[in-house]
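Note to self: keep these together.
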Amino acid sequence: MDYNVNNNGRYGEFGGAYIPEILYANVEALKESYLKIIGDPSFKAELDALLRDYVGRPSPLYFAGRLSERYATRIYLKREDLNHTGAHKINNTVGQILLAQRMGKTRIIAETGAGQHGVATATVCALKGMRCIVYMGETDIARQRLNVQKMQMLGAEVRSVTSGNKTLKDATNEAIRDWCCNPSDTHYIIGSTVGPHPYPDMVTRFQSVISEEIKAQLAERTGRDYPDYLIACVGGGSNAAGTFYHYLNDERVKLIGAEAAGLGVNTDQTAATIHLGKRGIIHGAHTFVMQTDDGQITEPYSISAGLDYPGIGPLHANLAVTGRAEYLAVTDDEALAAAMELTQLEGIIPALETAHALGVFRLKAFRPNDVVVLTLSGRGDKDMGNYELGIRN
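Structure:
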């Protein structure tokens, strides 16, 4: 089975493009041109140069000796936290800003939850001299103040969203409304593998530099270019998609995603979409959605601002349904404990999103000879307020 997107923009039964008529021309133009632009040698040369000289790639693959000893297996950390702007998000925004330029767009909009995608978008807009507007929920603005300040310093306009739960879903809604009002000059840099086709595939391709590097780095470090397990956190799913990409059709490699259980999957304070969601449409794609029996989207909750999304990328929905990947639900408390453990064993403070991936080690046993690669999708600077509360409690 091929787990990549097909010619109709679908991953099995999931995906597609369910969009307002006013955006049809925009999305069709993007669909018709993105593969040609990405495949152009001049585009690839400019992207590779920026990833190397601006982002700081390749990111290291670090053998976590003390963490490996704790869990009696071989754990490697893919250090996306060491990228410029502190997370994997920059891989995608660099690619999309170059794409927007070649499509003649002059205005950029984005949504953000934890703020990392907003910072990464504001960064590349400053680099290329483009106007940048970032939509962010009022709740997330309060808990991610440092990233808001960074975006503003970079010249972006941060628009506070006060509808709904005032988090990532609501920011995405407002960004789509903006796009509907400004279709001709605006490119929407979606931050995850969500939205209408071709966004899930396009974002995955820009993030696939992660798995491309893992293959080369593992070959050098272990003598083979594949691990036994890959682990990544999943909100919309971009860092996981990039981690899995070059191994999707390699059945030797087991794929594990960690989604946010919040206070528990049996509570109403959770963001465990794969565990609790039903098939539906959200932000232009058919996927799993947290919703009521009559189809109303429910409000997700997670201590992590980057994971409290009530949907999931269609790639991940398909991987879950087919059994190609396993998705574990990690609670707030489990994520906080895992973050403290990594910090005190390895001297690395992870983002709360990444902490959910680290929580997998407490939920699943690995063999001593297994090679386990976990993507550290971001660093913990932005989450110190939550960590401080966790330490006190």
